[in-house]
């Protein structure tokens, strides 16, 4: 079964690789109609998440957000598949990272940083696009896949150039590693934690929310500055990124403070354009003291 799944996966990538973006987005339009109107993929979860997050919105508004979200989700799916065979330069043309005076300063000081992001807009392309646009060495984390063949392929092809991709199971070792130059550790930090016991709890989108502790933990251990990776969609397949300083000296903060700042900033961005957040995940499955 693993070999068959791998064959299907590689075939999908091969097909997407030869299709130009304008045709790819036409296919995305078709898949969106299929998923949204015929299958109804996780519609109930999406509606519930949006309703709980925006209790002031009407059902009409909630459905409008959900519809655009599903359309955006199919775009991100095809963009992620396309990225496996795109050159680093091709991704950079569609994923522009604005110069960061702060990152420039700490790079010259020989300091690494943690860049935190949420499941907002396209969170898959930074690992590829950052190598040519940042002085810091980009180091991204990923959760190993159950299929060993797919996992090996992802590790081999998901990043290019100076970028590195490492398993979340090796997180502690990664921060101890000498990368030969200051690194920027890219961490998706808004996912639901595997256990609520070690989670930091914040009020996020009107809900008591468990958050992962890793980014703040390592920031405080190594006193590593934390920046927010603000990914904005300019048009279909074109994004712009700005790094916003969250904390320069984590050792001077209280427990949970950095996490709260990150989640508050992410919430502000979501409230501006809620259709681009990943509403299909069961983000609020944990309850406090559960």
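Sequence proposed for the structure above (290 residues):
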């Amino acid at each position: 079964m693993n070999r068959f799944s791998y064959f299907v996966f590689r075939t999908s990538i091969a097909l997407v690789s030869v299709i130009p973006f304008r045709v790819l987005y036409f296919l995305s339009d078709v898949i969106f109609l299929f998923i949204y109107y015929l299958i109804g993929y996780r519609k109930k979860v999406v509606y519930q998440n949006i309703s709980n997050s925006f209790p002031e919105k009407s059902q009409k508004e909630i459905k409008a957000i959900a519809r655009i979200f599903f359309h955006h989700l199919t775009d991100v799916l095809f963009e992620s598949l396309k990225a496996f065979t795109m050159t680093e330069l091709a991704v950079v043309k569609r994923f522009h990272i604005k110069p960061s005076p702060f990152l420039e300063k700490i790079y010259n000081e020989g300091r690494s940083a943690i860049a935190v992001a949420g499941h907002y807009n396209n969170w898959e392309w930074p690992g590829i696009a950052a190598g040519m646009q940042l002085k810091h060495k980009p180091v991204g984390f990923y959760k190993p896949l159950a299929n060993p063949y797919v996992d090996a392929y992802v590790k081999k092809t998901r990043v290019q150039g100076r970028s590195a991709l490492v398993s979340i199971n090796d997180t502690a070792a990664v921060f101890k590693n000498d990368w030969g130059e200051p690194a920027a550790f890219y961490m998706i930090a808004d996912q639901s934690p595997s256990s609520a016991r070690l989670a930091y709890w914040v009020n996020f989108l009107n809900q008591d929310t468990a958050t992962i502790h890793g980014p703040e933990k390592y920031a405080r251990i190594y006193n590593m500055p934390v920046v927010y990776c603000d990914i904005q969609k300019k048009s279909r397949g074109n994004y712009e990124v700005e790094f916003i300083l969250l904390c320069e000296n984590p050792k001077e903060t209280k427990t949970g403070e950095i996490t709260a700042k990150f989640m508050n900033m992410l919430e502000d961005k979501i409230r501006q354009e809620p259709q681009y957040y990943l509403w299909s995940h069961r983000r609020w499955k944990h309850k406090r003291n559960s």
